[in-house]
């Protein structure tokens, strides 16, 4: 039971990790893998071709065939025991979450044996949609928590012990007791009521597992340019109806084109008193 091989769908976040093309991308992958080195037999030997590429603080990555074999081998080791433990419903779960500008990531873990080493049970990451990329930091972090719990709801819903959510965004500690929520947050808060869990803050520097999954470089291959949904002329900042029969308003309309406010004001000129279109 302790060495059951997991379905590759459970670890697709790692198995689909693309080949690094820059020094920073390789550091991100090794940072994630290094956290679990105590569970991988001969980790240093397996990862040696990769770590050697970082010696001397190079500015460019010189990928080799040997490094590629090590990269593939290391990913394969994440899919087999004892790296991934089969979830044990009798033990409390820990969900570590994180979000970046391009994606979200999470790790489902449990403590096994003595002195209670933390073993990952499943990994999750995905790219943010165009709409989600426009969320502020707090909402992106909240999204990562909601998406992770939904992904593993078959393990987390109805558990006999509280599970713990770990995030590097302190404000999420108060989400359950928040009084003022926007419609989207209110829907998510209602979803959270189906689960029994606590939220714990942990500094981002110590949240490396979920952080690395949320920052996979293939999640950010497309530019994160804001997308305009409606042209600004559809939603002017302010409306004001003028009656051109008023001399004062005639002078104001004449002066508008030279005013710095002109691009921000939509003026409806009417003699009949009809409302703006």
Automatic annotation (TrEMBL):
Chain segments annotated as coiled-coil in the UniProt record: none
Domain Reverse transcriptase/retrotransposon-derived protein RNase H-like: 63-161
Highest taxon of the lineage: Eukaryota
InterPro entries tied to this protein: DNA/RNA_pol_sf, Rev_trsase/Diguanyl_cyclase, RT_RNaseH_2
SUPFAM superfamilies from the UniProt entry: DNA/RNA polymerases (SSF56672)
Gene3D superfamilies the UniProt entry points to: 3.10.20.370, 3.30.70.270
Record-given protein name: Reverse transcriptase/retrotransposon-derived protein RNase H-like domain-containing protein
